[in-house]
Amino acid sequence: MDFLDKLVLPQSAEHIELLHYMLILILAVFVPFISIIFGGTFASIHYGKKFRKTKSLYYKKFSKDIIEYVTVNNGVGVILGLVPLLAAILIFAQLLHTAQIQTVSFLALSFAFLLAGLFMIYTYRYSMVLSNVFESVNLNTNIDKDSEEDYRKIKAKSSYLSLNYGKSGLVILFVGIWFYVAAITSATSFTSWNFPGFITSLATPKVLLNLLIFIAFAFTLTNAEILFIHLYWKDSKQDEDVSYTKFVKDTASKAGLKASII
After folding, report:
1. I need a labelling partner for 104 at 20 to 30 A (CA). Which of 73, 129, 237, 244 fits?
2. Quick one: which of 105, 145, 134 has its CA closest to 4?
3. Helix, strand, or coil here: 8?
4. pTM for the structure as a whole
5. Secondary structure letter of residue 199 according to DSSP
């Protein structure tokens, strides 16, 4: 990360203190958002798998609702997910440019993995919507063969993306979060950090413990957001199926309680 050192300017004590406050604000935006994205994607894939086993339409709808709740849209993913992390990289480069620890390198790798992971997760979100549309459409008996063949190809492609991009994106996002946790752990534990190797740093007990805490926090926050949006923020509650609302409330409450206990 030598190229980042060239961007570093000498900072006064007041500027360094200001950078600390800016970093706190940036991470206060980034951590909850990326936690909800991770927890929501996991939950969406999990309940989608349950739908394929049980054929219960509630699981199918819940899987779709969750990924729509947590991702919002592409712009939010960039503004709350990528921009804050990029800003954090620049701030850490200023604060730690004389320290021989791997924080900035970990953050740079985290940014690369999160970029790829978010791209695949948003592709999963939109392909799931498209796949549901295709499944709800009946082919016109008078449609020509070429159009019917195109329809089936696009339907199969959207189904493939919804099944595979979600899982792949979740794994890549997990790796990015792992690098992020390692970066923050190395920075906050600077005085006791024994400067292990680059790979072995990821497997230190403190990093693994913080990773477990991060994941438990992600699942807790995700289920809290699902309950809040579904029960309080939705505009068309009068059109909502009462039994489905009860299903969402029971399912998210139990999952959130288990995660919060951890």
Report:
1. 73
2. 105
3. coil
4. 0.86
5. T
**What's the DSSP call for residue 237?**
G
Which of 68-72, 151-155, 225-229 is predicted with the least confidence, judged by mean pLDDT? Answer: 151-155
Yes or no: say if 178 and 57 are a contact pair by the CB < 8 Å rule: no
- Residue 201 to residue 184: CA distance in whole angstroms: 12
Average pLDDT over residues 41-70: 91
Neighbours of 228 (CB within 10 A): 13
Nearest to 230 by CA among 250, 213, 216: 250
Q: Which residues contact 14 (CB under 8 A, 6 or more apart)?
A: none
CA atoms within 13 A on the CB side of 55: 0
Which residues lie closer than 8 Å to 239 by C-beta, 6 or more apart? none
Query: What is the token pair recorded at 213?
Result: 């805490």
Tokens of 126: 């939109």
Please report where in the chains the tokens 């790798």 appear, as a residue.
Answer: 109
Cα 184 from Cα 105, distance rounded (Å): 11
CA distance 137 to 208: 47
Tell me, what's the pLDDT at 111?
A: 97
